[in-house]
Design a protein that fits this description.
- The complex is a heterodimer of chains A (112) and B (112).
- Chain A is mostly beta strands and 112 residues long.
- Chain A contains no helices and eleven strands.
- In chain A, strands 2, 4, 5, 9, 10 and 11 form a six-stranded mixed sheet that branches.
- Chain B is mainly β and 112 residues long.
- In chain B, 0% of the residues lie in helices and 56% in strands.
- In chain B, strands 2, 4, 5, 6, 9, 10 and 11 form a seven-stranded mixed sheet that branches. In chain B, strands 1-3-8-7 form a four-stranded antiparallel sheet, with no helix packed on it.
- In chain B, strand 5 and strand 6 form a beta hairpin.
- Chain B starts with a strand and ends with a strand.
- The chains are: A mainly beta (112), B mainly beta (112).
- At the A-B interface, strand 5, strand 9 and strand 10 of A face strand 4, strand 5 and strand 10 of B.
Chain lengths: 112, 112
């Protein structure tokens, strides 16, 4: 059974600080995704990481993938309040019909 | 011009009732999914359909029955609703089985 673990599950950080969210998964997967969810809203796709060593950046967020370690990181640089949300990583596998297996999510609160 | 839409957005009903949630996508995608997000925000795949054919049926009670009248629609019918069915249900679609998934706005179901 594919397991996806995120940590931390809760993160309170000050504006301007840097931090990293970690995502570990238990078996070889095809792709890794990062999503953002605002309260009461849907899931917004942030990044899709396809191969070992992949790195993608958008604004203050940067995601990376190490398939050998089965680890992805979401790095936040100089956090701002607008980044407050819940962040999910998810992986899919061909032999499970590419259904997304989600981590439990990291609730991020950025404070002044 | 919503890509993936769901109706209704909110659904409040009593235990024992039968209800349906509708999902439509106008992206021309072949694959559609239903995910359940529980009160702790955990997201789990329920079903997936590809070209109107059931691909994934996770360990979901048989009170839940998906129906795909055509590739653009995947509806979820729930019989004999229970308190534990209260959750947010997300529909998603992808170009094909391996494509990136796009999520609908969610339907918040409350069973009283």
């Amino acid at each position: 059974e594919l397991k996806v673990e995120q940590n931390p599950l809760f993160l309170s950080m000050q504006e301007g600080k840097n931090y990293t969210i970690y995502c570990n998964y238990s078996t070889t997967s095809d792709r890794l995704y990062w999503y953002r969810q605002d309260p009461g809203k849907s899931l917004e796709s942030l990044f899709v990481l396809l191969s070992n060593g992949a790195v993608k950046q958008e604004g203050r967020l940067m995601a990376s993938l190490d398939t050998k370690a089965r680890l992805s990181t979401l790095h936040i640089t100089a956090a701002v309040h607008d980044l407050s949300a819940t962040y999910f990583c998810a992986v899919d596998m061909r032999n499970s019909g590419y259904a997304l297996n989600f981590g439990k999510g990291t609730s991020l609160l950025v404070t002044p | 011009d919503t890509a993936v839409s769901q109706t209704p957005k909110y659904l409040v009903t009593q235990m024992g009732n039968d209800k349906s949630i509708k999902c439509e996508q106008n992206l021309g995608h072949d694959t559609m999914y239903w995910y359940k997000q529980d009160s702790k925000k955990f997201l789990k795949i329920m079903f997936s359909y590809n070209n109107k054919e059931l691909i994934i049926n996770e360990t979901v009670p048989n009170r839940f029955s998906p129906k795909s009248p055509d590739k653009a629609h995947l509806n979820l019918h729930i019989n004999s609703l229970e308190l534990g069915d209260s959750a947010v249900y997300f529909c998603a679609s992808s170009r094909d089985l391996a494509g990136e998934q796009y999520f609908g706005p969610g339907t918040r179901l409350t069973v009283t």
